[in-house]
Design a protein that fits this description.
Layout lengths: L2 E10 L4 E9 L5 E4 L6 H15 L7 H10 L7 H22 L3 H4 L7 E7 L8 H12 L5 E4 L11 H18 L4 E5 L6 H11 L7 E2 L7 H10 L4 E3 L6 H9 L5 E2 L3 H4 L1 H14 L3 E2 L7 H11 L8 E4 L1 E2 L3 H4 E3 L2 E3 L2 E3 L8 E3 L30 E2 L2 E2 L2
Parallel strand pairs: 4-11, 5-6, 6-7, 7-8, 8-9, 9-10, 14-18
Antiparallel strand pairs: 1-2, 2-3, 4-15, 12-17, 13-16, 14-15
Helix pairs in contact: 1-3, 2-3, 5-6, 7-8, 9-11, 11-12
Length: 390
């Protein structure tokens, strides 16, 4: 079998664009994947075109070999753009391998160790502005059978927060905790916002709400400073979504600065490196809870890996998505009892429906976090994207 073509598609998804890949072979087996990198779309597509020159004519089953060449032969290794391109290709090659052998990718990675992938929901708060809004949306979400929520209560704050701003943010956290009760897991997102002093103050305030973890409280890149926070934080610290290789993730894990590692399959190096990062974390007695706020390809690929990992904690997934998600992709997983269930579909378990892509062309999207639009995450007509089963 040989790779004959690699095609990319940029599809509008309201808050970001999804970057999809289609890898074709001379035997008619097609690999689908995603390489979404928020707000940096066209450079990723250009990087895929660079990697394509090496890949055309190669055997798609030789995934480790190609992964090595795509790292070794492009001198400016890693970084978000090149590794996102590499990640998308890697995922598509695993999809081809699974389809060629007629099995899900998780079978090729050692087999499942769990049937249900526990999830926590992001995006459930869409449109919320006040503590009452957050509380009502949290309560209605949990009433539908969900068991864990994550959100960023910090508005447009950056680096520092006044005492009043911290108090206002903690009022939102308190309102959500009261609304959902003590048995629901709550996780707080920091988006890499704060300096060390502010992050310590916030972490201490969060203790009273029994928070599962405080995610990315500091700007990434200084593991030594993050360790200072972890040593003073009464709540667990999570980070790692901006690790752009297994080496980045290994440095973060072995620094001792995190309780939970959060690599993203679309940025860390695809299925190949996500599995390796999980093993490194397991050897250091650290849980893995992947960053996964992107689209259907990211979700499908991450689930395949996490089904095989003993140290897997839970998976981020979006509660809602654009109403056209069900048009542009066919997904085979479904929600049940607090998690997503993988089917026996070969490969990663999705099919891209290209005929609908033209209806949702590329749009320029900008980061919402510091413009007072943090909760404008989905359109008003957004819908729950997954099916539920009892």
């Amino acid at each position: 079998m040989k790779i004959t073509e690699i095609k990319t598609f940029i599809v509008d998804a309201f808050r970001v664009n999804y970057i999809f890949l289609k890898v074709e072979t001379d035997e008619g087996i097609i690999g689908y994947s995603e390489a979404t990198l928020d707000y940096i779309d066209t450079p990723v597509v250009s990087a895929i075109e660079e990697l394509k020159r090496y890949l055309i004519g190669k055997d798609p089953m030789e995934i480790e070999l190609h992964h090595m060449h795509m790292e070794r032969d492009y001198y400016w290794r890693y970084g978000p753009v090149l590794t996102s391109a590499l990640s998308g290709i890697d995922i598509a090659l695993w999809d081809i391998r699974g389809k060629a052998l007629g099995v899900p990718v998780y079978t090729l990675l050692g087999g499942k160790v769990k049937d249900i992938i526990p999830v926590y929901l992001n995006g459930w708060f869409s449109g919320a502005k006040t503590k009452k809004d957050f509380a009502e949306k949290a309560k209605s979400t949990i009433a539908q059978g969900f068991k864990a929520l994550k959100w960023d209560p910090f508005g447009d704050s950056y680096l520092n927060m006044t005492k009043e701003q911290i108090y206002n943010s903690m009022e939102i956290v308190a309102a959500v905790r009261e609304a959902v009760g003590p048995r629901v897991d709550l996780f707080i997102e920091g988006h890499g916002r704060f300096n060390l002093t502010t992050a310590i103050r916030i972490a201490r305030e969060l203790e009273k709400f029994d928070i599962g973890f405080f995610e990315e409280p500091l700007h990434p890149g200084r593991n030594d400073v993050l360790l200072k926070l972890k040593l003073q934080s009464p709540v667990p610290i999570a980070a790692g979504e901006r690790c752009y290789s297994r080496f980045d993730a290994a440095n973060l894990i072995e620094s001792g600065a995190v309780d939970v590692i959060q690599p993203d399959v679309c940025q860390v190096g695809g299925i190949t490196d996500l599995k390796k990062v999980a093993s490194i974390a397991e050897a250091n007695f650290i849980n893995i809870s992947p960053h996964n706020p992107a689209g259907p390809g990211s979700n499908a690929a991450t689930m395949q890996v996490m089904a095989t990992c003993m140290n897997f904690m839970n998976l981020e997934t979006m509660f809602n998505d654009v109403p056209w998600r069900k048009d542009i992709v066919t997904e085979t997983c479904y929600y049940k009892d607090g998690g997503l269930v993988l089917t026996e579909a070969p490969g990663i378990g999705i099919t891209l429906n290209e005929e609908f892509f033209k209806d949702h062309p590329y749009k320029v999207h900008e980061l919402r976090h510091y413009r007072g639009e943090l909760t404008n995450i989905f359109p008003d007509d957004s819908v729950v994207w997954f099916n539920k089963r009892d």
